[in-house]
Design brief:
- The complex is a heterodimer of chains A (370) and B (388).
- Chain A is of the alpha/beta class and 370 residues long.
- Chain A has helices at residues 15-26, 61-74, 84-100, 107-126, 170-174, 185-194, 216-226; strands at residues 6-10, 30-37, 78-82, 131-133, 139-143, 148-152, 176-177, 236-240, 245-249, 272-277, 282-286, 292-303, 313-318, 326-334, 337-347, 354-359, 362-369.
- Chain A folds into three domains: 6-135 and 179-216, Rossmann fold (3-Layer(aba) Sandwich), CATH 3.40.50.620; 236-286, SH3 type barrels (Roll), CATH 2.30.30; 292-369, Translation factors (Elongation Factor Tu (Ef-tu), domain 3).
- Chain A is built from seven helices and 17 strands.
- Chain B folds into two domains: 4-12 and 256-386, Aspartate Aminotransferase, domain 1; 16-252, Type I PLP-dependent aspartate aminotransferase-like (Major domain) (Aspartate Aminotransferase, domain 2, 3-Layer(aba) Sandwich), CATH 3.40.640.10.
- Chain B is 41% helix and 13% strand.
- Chain B contains 15 helices and twelve strands.
- Chain B has helices at 16-23, 38-58, 71-80, 97-108, 126-132, 155-165, 184-187, 225-228, 236-255, 257-275, 302-311, 331-335, 340-344, 357-376, 383-386, and strands at residues 4-5, 65-68, 88-92, 112-116, 137-141, 168-172, 191-195, 206-210, 279-281, 292-297, 314-315, 346-350.
- Classes of the chains: A alpha/beta (370), B alpha/beta (388).
- Chains A and B meet through helix 2, strand 3 and helix 4 of A and helix 11 of B.
Chain lengths: 370, 388
């Protein structure tokens, strides 16, 4: 990056994106800081189970304040852009609906696809930036041989965020920079310190930015109450895999595949949620062994390192962010559908999560687990 | 980088003559205006001179001026100081948040508020105000000039409605002061708010005209400052500055400076509307203050345009900014019946005393091509251009 470019940095007010802005500025680029206002953190305040004021999370005034201070420290223009409407439509609503239909959604991927690398990238280009840089731990490279932009795993494997980025298109990747891809987190903090950023030791954020305290059930209640909608009654039966009714449950949104606690059924051996049948309002429970499956299908796929999956392909497949990945064969099984067959059965394949395919460090693509 | 500031409805620079007038009151003349001794007498005299200058601008008596910390405090004092539980207030849908949220707050404590609508040009119909009257109506509060569109409201007719019904009439004249003649007698208002920093005095000072005989409950309790209507040691440098700014505003109006400003504004407006397609003037056909143009650009996100222009040195704005600095769709433009997308694609250009014809040419060189670039990248305007 020797030549001077105009680069927009998506600034969350955290250490990573702040350091990205400082690094690019130090390299001599024209840097513009942008923060997306996505959710009014006070919106559900006062609803049962919601805190009155939320501190230290994305879109809180504190984080905007932190980002603004960083921009001022490093001497770059900084702006807040409001995308609350799109965020609610493309992230919050689907999040709520997925839970209500018995799935376990990943709002961060939706936000990346619909907000950060769509709306914000457009704003970045509109204001004259060549590229958008973020604080994600991932790498993006152009492969001359393939003639394609590649998304690759970062040096700091413990911070790998490629799982959430599988939806990026070639056009999006071509205008994206992940300057932290080759760094370890402690180095990033050190660099933040060197650049005089007051937030160098600010803790990492872990939870979903719009769900205070991580309690999604309380969020669903509060959001639906605010919308004047009743929580749909999805109470029903707890059944075993062979169809035997062993109890009742208060609503399918309270369950996630693989969950063990809170089933309210006492049996000899521990029971797990194996499957959630949204239409029948049934929660299927069973033994640990029954949690394992060899195949899964994904829809709404996106391929990155290949244009199409003409032949079956060997890949390492991750089925949730913290899954280490398992060897599998991936093959096209329909229009916008890919069948994944693992060498060894995998625990708790969860509808609503993503399956992301890797060839070594390279993200082949991915899709949403049906 | 050359920077041109066309956001004078947000705030204005302190004029050099104003700055000069106030400087002595930070150090040389530092007395508390309530003190008996020489130091207090000096500042008391300065405060009273400023009061007279402001009274001359508004056409009232000096004793009818209450200095405040700004327009927001003046609006709050006027509204909360006159009304209480069980009483009815008439306001409009396009007021500044200082008025709207004062009304909302009072609604929560047992006041009733009617918000009269505006027409497509942004004007209140005085007959709507008349029709909104109730036996328990205590106050009508409707602004003189709108901050986003610059549209002037028919305050004189509303003043007549208030007088006939014998209810109090307050008008927020923050965006009118120094831009149009204000005569509280002609308007027929009982209270009128102004803000220093919208008329080349510093931020942190304002005033409320309170017609003699109006019994106003103070909001701040303390000493008997401002004839017991607003406790607290006077902000002497700010008040002196406001007085000087009022004198300069009168002189400028007498000289015909506003005519020049109006010509620059018109050139800016006509050229944008002529050169850029799919644009229009908000408040078309309504009388406006001479410094403001609110223009919509279809298929544009106003905030992206503001950022793009700022990065090239031109400062303008969209609607009101919220606390984080993000932009909310304008309640003023939506109240005028504008769809939210068009409201979000609207920009406000507001000129000030410091602007020159060269500033306008700078803006005109920048705006059309920036709009074209934004539209090229807009998924709504041209889906094929971005490739995704």
């Amino acid at each position: 990056m020797s030549q001077t470019r105009t680069i927009a940095v998506a600034m969350s007010g955290g250490v990573d994106s702040s350091t990205v802005a400082a690094m690019l500025r130090a390299e001599g680029h024209n840097v513009v800081g942008l923060t997306m206002q996505l959710w009014n953190q006070r919106r559900l305040a006062g609803h049962e189970g919601m805190p009155e004021a939320v501190q230290g999370r994305c879109c809180s005034l504190d984080d905007v304040y932190d980002a603004r201070r960083v921009a001022e420290t490093i001497g770059i223009p900084y702006y807040v852009v409001n995308h609350e409407e799109r965020f609610e439509r493309d992230v919050v609503r689907p999040f709520v609906e997925q839970y209500l239909s018995g799935r376990t959604p990943i709002p961060c991927s939706l936000c990346n696809n619909h907000l950060k690398f769509d709306q914000l990238l457009i704003v970045a280009q509109q204001i004259g930036a060549d590229a958008l840089a973020t604080g994600h731990y991932a790498r993006v490279e152009f492969d001359d041989r393939l003639g394609r932009w590649l998304l690759k795993r970062p040096t700091d494997r413990s911070k790998d965020q490629t799982y959430f980025l599988f939806g990026l298109t070639q056009a999006q990747l071509s205008r994206t920079l992940f300057p932290l891809g080759g760094m370890m987190k402690p180095e990033v903090r050190q660099l933040a310190q060197q650049h005089g950023l007051a937030l160098a030791q600010k803790p990492d954020s872990q939870e979903i930015c719009f769900v205070p305290g991580g309690d999604y059930k309380k969020f669903l209640d509060a959001y639906l109450a605010e919308q004047g909608e009743a929580l749909p009654d999805t109470a029903g039966e707890l059944v075993t895999t062979d169809g035997q009714v062993v109890g009742e449950h208060g609503g399918i949104h309270n369950f996630t595949v693989g969950q063990r606690k809170g089933l309210g059924v006492a049996t000899g051996s521990p029971l797990y949620v194996i499957q959630i049948k949204g239409d029948a309002r049934q929660v299927v429970v069973g033994d640990q062994e029954e949690l394992y499956s060899r195949t899964l299908r994904v829809h709404r796929t996106n391929l990155i390192s290949v244009g199409d999956l003409q032949e079956p392909m060997r890949a390492t497949v991750k089925i949730r962010h913290r899954h280490e990945g398992a060897p599998a064969l991936i093959e096209k099984s329909g229009d916008d559908e890919i069948l994944v067959t693992f060498d060894q059965p995998q625990r708790a394949v969860t509808p609503g999560q993503a399956a992301v395919f890797y060839a070594d460090d390279v993200v082949v693509g991915g899709g949403w687990i049906a | 980088m050359r920077r041109v500031y066309l956001d004078n409805n947000a705030t204005t620079p302190v004029l050099p003559a104003v700055f000069e007038a106030m400087q002595a009151y930070f150090g040389e003349h530092f007395g508390n205006a309530s003190s008996i001794h020489h130091h207090g007498q000096e500042t008391r005299a300065a405060v009273e001179r400023a009061r007279e200058s402001l009274a001359a601008l508004l056409g009232c008596r000096a004793s009818e001026i209450v200095f405040t910390s700004g327009g927001t405090e003046a609006d709050n004092l006027a509204i909360a100081g006159l009304t209480g539980t069980g009483q009815h207030i008439i306001s409009s849908t396009i007021e500044h948040h200082a008025v709207l949220n004062s009304c909302k707050h009072l609604e929560a404590s047992g006041c009733e508020v009617s918000y009269v609508p505006v027409d497509g040009r942004g004007q209140v119909d005085p007959d709507d105000v008349r029709r909104a009257l109730r036996p328990n109506t205590r106050l009508i509060t409707i602004m003189m000039a709108n901050n986003e569109t610059g549209v002037l409201e028919p305050v004189e007719e509303i003043g007549k409605v208030a007088a006939e019904a014998d209810v109090y009439f307050h008008t927020d004249a923050v965006q009118a002061a120094g831009k149009v003649l204000i005569d509280v007698k002609r308007i027929g208002c009982d209270l009128l708010s102004i803000s220093g920093h919208k008329m080349n005095a510093p931020q942190g000072v304002g005033a409320l005209y309170v017609r003699k005989g109006t019994s106003l409950r103070p909001m701040l309790h303390g000493g008997s400052h401002e004839r017991s209507r607003r406790a607290g040691t006077e902000n002497v440098p700010g008040i002196v500055a406001l007085g000087r700014a009022a004198e300069l505003a009168r002189e400028a109006m007498a000289r015909g400076d506003l005519e020049q400003m109006s010509q620059m504004r018109d050139r800016l407006e006509r050229t944008i509307l002529g050169e850029v397609e799919s644009t229009g003037l908000n408040g078309q056909g309504a009388p406006r203050v001479p410094n403001t143009s609110s223009i919509y650009f279809d298929c544009i996100e106003g905030e992206a345009l503001v950022i793009a222009l700022d990065l090239k040195g031109l400062a303008v704005s969209t609607g009101a900014a919220c606390s984080s600095g993000a932009i909310e769709p304008s309640h003023v433009l939506t109240a005028m019946g504008m769809p939210p997308e068009r409201a979000r694609g609207s920009l406000r250009f507001s000129l000030g005393k410091q602007n020159t014809p060269e500033d306008i040419e700078f803006a005109l060189d920048l705006i059309p091509r920036t709009v074209v670039r934004l539209r090229e990248l807009s998924p709504i305007y041209n889906k094929s251009a971005t490739g995704y």
